[in-house]
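Ticket opened by: R.M.
Priority: normal
Category: complex prediction / small molecule

The reporter submitted a protein together with flavin-adenine dinucleotide and asked that the result be attached to this ticket for the collaborator who will pick it up next week. Submitted input follows.
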Amino acid sequence: MSHFRSNVRDVKFTLFDLLGLDHLLPADLDRDTVEAMIDEVDRLSRNVLADSYADGDRNPPVFDPETSSVRLPEPFRQAFRAYLDGGWWRLDVPEELGGTAAPRALWWALMELVQGANAPVFMYSAGPSMAGLLYRLGTPEQQRTARTMIEKSWAATMVLTEPEAGSDVGAGRTVARRQPDGSWHIEGVKRFITSGEHDLAENIVHFVLARPEGAAAGTKGLSMFVVPKFLFDRETGELLDRNGVHATNVERKMGIKVSTTCELTFGAKQPAVGWLVGDRHEGIAQMFKVIEGARMQVGVKAIATLSTGYLNARAYAAERVQGSDLTRRADPSAPRVTIDQHPDVRRMLMLQKCYAEGLRALYLFTAAQLDLGDPALNDLLLPLVKGVGSERSFEMLTLSLQTLGGSGFLQDHPMEQYLRDTKIDTLYEGTTGIQGQDLFFRKIARDRGAVLDRLLDRIDDPELAEAVAEVRAMTGMMLGWDDDARKDPAEVYRIGAHTTRLLLSLGDLLVGWLLRCQARLCEGREDGFARGKVAAAQFFTATVLPELAARRRIMERTGPELMEVPDDAF
Ligand code: ST9
Ligand code: FAD
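Result attached by the on-call engineer:
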């Protein structure tokens, strides 16, 4: 039995009934075709992709420091190959490179299924998407390289982090020295690079941030280079010499063990030759095009795992018999019931359902903004998909495990691996702390809340009026502190103490809103799916949204105390 339990019905309901995907399809795609695509990716995910999920955890890749090479386990290789052969990556690639035009919402819906089954398959298969980016940003010669990457199924990485430059990417020390032939030599050590070394493709193209000699400090002085593992003939794509970038370590991790996380050393033994992307020094802006995609990917990964975690918990709770009905708790002769009859278990299940389905609606709504031509709203929502998606999914997966009691702690069930594999989602691609700052300083304060107001104005549900008012009060307060900080810089600490709280609160409001929109579409229907939508919206409105008032009061009472606590008092 596959560990992966998908919720295709909810995916289709959200895409078509909630978001009206029918109206966003290109001429050559109709609803039947899209539904068939979802069904096919679902089949692939539940079977071939899910089959190697546990094996990749128990038998992780083996690193040979002598040759700086990595061997991946065979079952995972099969899953990866099956995914690549399916050609689904074409939906994320420009048509000029053999791609297929498709709505972003459909792409991410399909990638929810892939990632719920085996997220590292998707992570290793970033090559075509990165080739697409190189095609859009690159020189004509780099556009040819992009074609080669696709034709030869080369892999790709995003290379930012260094030992002293994690959240603070601008602290990076890796340097780039220009060569007379127009190429660059990269020197430095990068850390934590996903898919930095493996044997799934004949070549790996690293997209690297490095600082040209003499360039400014900070992120604005960084440029983006493509640095291949093997040099190649730019006309034919034929592999030439090994380039001077080598994996010098592969980390041992808590989860996503089959995904290699590498230290990459550039230019230690021989030059690591690279080319400036687009022949323009716009590295951080170029890399953020990748980061935006990867933040979406990470949020969807977490939400996908919560969904399968919840569905596994629900199935277990419907079968596990323990205890009697609460009304007969003092009667030892009362019949034993399945645990899903206990109010406390129902509380856990309903909360998981609310977040799993509400966050699915949130990421699909976010993706659909690109299809609808509203990139500013997509920008505002991205830190929520990544930050709230990962935090709430991890939190809710602890309830999925809890639902199984002691059995949840065992490797007989996927829950413990889900939890270990999902923890990373609150960390990489910008920690939750960074997402909160991105949301407030970049996405709200810069336009004085204009895009946020536009979104909040759409929430015209009277049942949510109070929750909307709480969020408006929170952002109003923080914008006020932002103004005050112009005179007294220390006022910004008050903002910094609440950016994560705002992130989670706005996330809860949007989850509540989307659940209620779904429920409205189901009113009057008697089937279980529809009743579930109505029940979820009621439960979330009644039990989660009232917390926003307390959070707003906490903010109001914030003074400078936290920063005044002496360091040795912690
Ligand atoms: C990582 C990978 O963790 C983990 C998972 C890998 C999975 C597989 C890999 C491949 C998957 C790929 C799939 C999709 C592929 C798609 C490809 C193609 C489409 N939005 O505020 P400032 C820019 S990787 C847009 O002053 P600081 C902007 O240009 C490691 N742009 O920042 C801005 O200039 P301006 C991930 C943004 O104080 C400039 O940056 N590491 C945004 O200098 C400077 O901005 C991290 O994520 C934005 N939201 O630096 C680092 N924000 O203002 C986290 C900034 O003029 N740290 N820019 O427009 C941060 O994000 C920091 O806040 C910082 C601060 C570095 C930006
Ligand atoms: P730090 O930046 O040291 O953060 C530590 C804590 O301090 C966090 O809680 C953070 O929120 C907080 N913090 C830091 N700065 C601030 C601030 N200014 N304000 C408030 N709080 C702050 N990187 C790549 O380039 N490519 C990859 O492919 C890649 N893959 C990864 C895979 C794995 C498994 C891991 C673990 C990491 C990967 N990373 C990758 C790196 C990842 O993006 C960083 O780990 C992440 O950005 C955080 O940096 P850090 O670990 O140095 O933590």
